[in-house]
Structure prediction request, 155 residues.
Amino acid sequence: LLSLKLLASNHFFAPLCSLTPQICNPEKLTSFTSLPLFLQITSSILTISGLIVAIISRHTLGENWSGKIDIKKNHKLITTGIYKHIRHPIYTGVILMAAGTFLNFNLPSAAIIFLFIFTLLIYKLKKEEDLLTKYFPKEYPEYKRHTKSLIPFLF
Prediction:
């Protein structure tokens, strides 16, 4: 509950909390244990799976990782490990964690925040793909032909 109060006080998330006050107000949240067992299990699996995917992905990137959209000195295109199956597995992990977390809230307004996060990640994904295509003009388009962005074989 303390983390929810910190979330509400964060300037970046303040507009979201004003749109969805029940998420940022701990008194209005439903208890995790009040959710049906199926939702408890599903949300836990999504959250933990997302965390594992993000950690493995970050580890695979090594020194090529950056929180910003940029190219590092001696940047390499990583196409092995989890990157053999999807191009942006860290985003997949974040989306899974967000889906699991907001499923816990069991509130319609949680979907608004989830969609906001999803939209931001898709925007950042497209910017990264433009930069990688420019930096790796032969390799990246070929890599794109054989892999999906976020979900293996689908998307």
